Amino acid sequence: MPEIELSTLLLVIAFGFLAAFIDSVVGGGGLVSIPALLATGMSPATALGTNKLASSFGSLTSSLKFLRARHVDFRLVMKLFPLSFLLSVGGALLAVQMPGELLKPLVLVMLIFVLVYTLVNKDWGGMEKKMVFTSRKVAILILFVLIIGFYDGFMGGGTGSFLMFLMLFTGFDFLRSAGNAKVLNFASNIGGLLLFIIMGEVSYTYGFVMAGSMILGSYTGAHMAISKGVGYVKALFIIVTTILIIKNLYDFFLSGV
Fold it and tell me: Pick from 73, 66, 56, 64: which is nearest to 196 by CA?
């Protein structure tokens, strides 16, 4: 591990706060935090594991904030929580043996679909619908939580957007979708983290330093979302999803990855 410098720690703290602020509501924080960790000189695998450690603290903080504000369907997410956790462990196991690049074209298509659907349906997510959970709807919900949980352990980019889209599709408004998504994202974060710890791919020094700033960033971001309401969350969701699409387009067509 390279020698730790004060300037590097400050970089990790600053970018950790910014990443968590974004991630606390709609996900996508890894676009900020992972490059910051790579800049310290650690390997890509260690950067991913360290990011999982820090972001687990961040997602826990925002989850608790949404829970206290009653913007989480507690009964629903607690049933889905273990599924998200277990499949994330499976995804992380596969990530060790198989390059995540194989999924990038599919992820790009899914992100574009999520963005277009949100833009076309202008009133979507503005008001919570009365939900009737038929056996078919429950089966679809469980299936996609399993897929997204697995994806978060395997690759991760865009998990927050996919979870929010799923919750919106279920009938929640943008604010409750954000709350439900963060709790499930916390489950997949700790599932993936467990595997990275076992593999020895976590830098605890940088991880706990970044975790401190992520706790503050997550609290601030979630508080802002709750106080500003549905419109703010929807705007942030569209912005972050657009950035994720641009990033994936760059990786796919220009970086040769």
Answer: 56
Backbone CA torsion sign across 193, 199, 203, 205 = positive
Length of the chain: 257
For 100-139, the pLDDT digits (tens) are: 556 567 667 877 887 887 787 766 566 666 666 778 878 8
Q: How far is CA 201 from the centre of its chain?
A: 20
How much is the pLDDT for 102?
Answer: 60
| Residue 70 structure tokens | 């009653």
- Quick one: DSSP state of residue 201? -
Euclidean distance between CA atoms 207 and 74, whole angstroms: 29
Distance CA 251, CA 174 (A): 29
Contact of 46 with 207, CB cutoff 8 Å: no
Residue 16 CA: distances (Å) to CA of 94, 117, 132, 217: 27, 30, 39, 8
Give the three-class secondary structure for 229.
coil
SS3 content of the chain, % helix, strand, coil (to 5): 80, 0, 20
CB < 8 Å & 24+ apart, contacts of 232-239: 233/25, 233/26, 233/174, 233/175, 233/177, 233/178, 234/118, 234/125, 234/126, 234/174, 236/22, 236/25, 236/26, 237/25, 237/26, 237/118, 237/161, 237/164, 237/174, 238/115, 238/118, 238/119
Which is nearest to 34 in space by CA: 24, 45, 20, 48? 48
User: Hunting for tokens 């996919």 — which residue is that?
Assistant: 162
